[in-house]
# Entry
Amino acid sequence: MVQQARKTEIYDALVCGDLLTALPHIAQTEFGGPCDLVLAADVLCYFERLEGLMAAVVAIFKSGGLFAFSVEPCVEALTDSAACKADDVVELPGNATRYKHRIEYVQACAELAGMEIVACRKTIGRYAKSITPVPYTLLLLRCRVSGMAM
# Structure
């Protein structure tokens, strides 16, 4: 995917690596300091726990920085498992690398990291096997603190 993206020649920078270790490096070397916006579409579903990611994002922000991302919400009516009632994170059946997250858990992680929810919208994020709609929640968070020295 990175190779295909490079061919388009529309990106300022493309980095392939572990997100948590790459974020500080990218902020300093590619953008010269604190970031105003981090966008992560269809990324958080690969993280079981979000506390570390939220802290890593805040660490590269200016105060007021925005974090826009999508999650597959853990909504009991939309799952085969009652686990959503009790757990913050539920592994998707038959897929050990994707996770659904309770919105209350996402909000708690955001608040712990120093961010607040600015917008939250439900949508269809993709179609499983090209026919079954998969619900997503789009969120926009604002950082209340400055993580990076200016």
